[in-house]
Amino acid sequence: MISIVIPTYRESESVQQTLRRAAAALWKYGDEFELIVVDDESDDGTAEKAESLQNELPVRVLRRKGKRGLATAVVDGWATARGDILGVMDGDLQHPPEVLAELADAMQRTQADLVVASRYCRGGGSLRWPWWRRVASAAATHLAATVLPLRLSGMTDPMSGMFLVRARAIEGAELTPIGFRILLEVVGKGKIGKLCEVPYLFEKREQGRSKLGARECAEYLMHLARLAWSTGQLRKWMRYTLVGLTGAVVNLSALDVMAVKAGWPLAAAAAAAIELAIVYNFFGNWLFTFSRCPAGPFARRLARYELICAPGAALNWLLTLSLFGVGFPLLGAAAVGIAADGLVNLTLNIPSIWKIWGPDLH
Ligand code: GDD
Ligand code: MN
């Protein structure tokens, strides 16, 4: 049985059509199903409109007191669900309900634990989204990949609010999300083996208004911080930073030995010192950050690591040489270069660096 939760807050103009189209799609698909509307005390009659369809469609309505957030609405809905497959979709028709049948079909065909409707895999997209929302969405997606680098690898749209998950994959997991992003909680806390994606077009909102505001953005950051803590990622970042700091010492001392004591040309000495630090960081992270897991093959992993670190390293080299050229003391110039390099690695490169040690290096 498939149980689909539809969280609603002030969606009186679209909830009935959402339910009708979802039911039609799932009837056509053929499996038994239930639709669970979780409404947070909407004052526009959303819950009543959903309840009025209870005789026609397999619909239940859960009413919560106060506006308590999208993601917890989904958790509360799932807690009352009877299906072995759980799902979620928006109630404002931005998620075309017909896609539910495609998700169910893909889950059946691939035996995946999680099937996500994605805007960013081939064939997907979002209609008439302003550029700033696209940029914000890309930044939010990158941030999520920085917090859950391995669990989100291979997932093109971790912000998606339309997916199916097998109940057994999240059985026993304590889901305590804040804000909008229930999928992050599911991949962060659940035991998801196989993932499958289905493309879809995120429609323009025709009725009602979006509830994604400043408060939800702040909640998103809090949610990520909590996931960083509960998944152990925070500890890994701290270890990674510690390795990076000792790597900075390696870089500076090597530069001092080669350029000052041995008298090498500065360009060569700076390049060699940076390279030495990269190799030090690579093995330092393997030993300390990733607790020697997995063991080898090192050549390909190191080659990939060098490639990822190359832009930051080039910046480091350029800054060291040019700042020294304009009168900085050598080690001061190198320290600025190293800081810029580290910043690039921390902000942009974590997802790709983590994947080097991930299980699926191809
Ligand atoms: N019960 C409840 N409580 N429902 C809520 C709440 C709440 O506090 N806040 C929002 N909802 C419901 C809305 O009524 C709607 O059905 C759904 O959650 C999504 O809310 P929207 O406000 O329409 O979200 P959006 O379109 O801006 O954002 C959507 O962006 C993603 C793509 O980036 C998300 O909702 C995702 O589901 C979607 O995939
Ligand atoms: Mn919406």
Overall description:
The protein folds into 2 domains: 2-230, Spore Coat Polysaccharide Biosynthesis Protein SpsA, Chain A, CATH 3.90.550.10; 233-355, no CATH class. Helix content is 53%, strand content 11%. It has helices at 15-29, 46-51, 70-79, 99-110, 131-147, 182-189, 214-230, 233-261, 266-289, 298-325, 330-348, 350-356, and strands spanning 2-8, 33-39, 59-63, 85-88, 114-118, 125-126, 163-166, 195-199, 201-202. The chain has a 7-stranded mixed beta sheet with strand order 3-2-1-4-7-5-8, sandwiched between helices. A two-stranded parallel sheet has the order 6-9. Helix 2 (46-51) links the parallel strand 2 and strand 3 (59-63). The protein is elongated, with a radius of gyration of 25 Å. Bound molecules: guanosine-5'-diphosphate-alpha-D-mannose and manganese (II) ion. Manganese (II) ion (MN) is lined by residues 90, 92, 94, 205, 210.
Furnish the topology, listing elements before pairings.
Blueprint: E1 2-8, H1 15-29, E2 33-39, H2 46-51, E3 59-63, H3 70-79, E4 85-88, H4 99-110, E5 114-118, E6 125-126, H5 131-147, E7 163-166, H6 182-189, E8 195-199, E9 201-202, H7 214-230, H8 233-261, H9 266-289, H10 298-325, H11 330-348, H12 350-356
Parallel strand pairs: 1-2, 1-4, 2-3, 5-8, 6-9
Antiparallel strand pairs: 4-7, 5-7
The structure holds guanosine-5'-diphosphate-alpha-D-mannose (GDD) and manganese (II) ion.
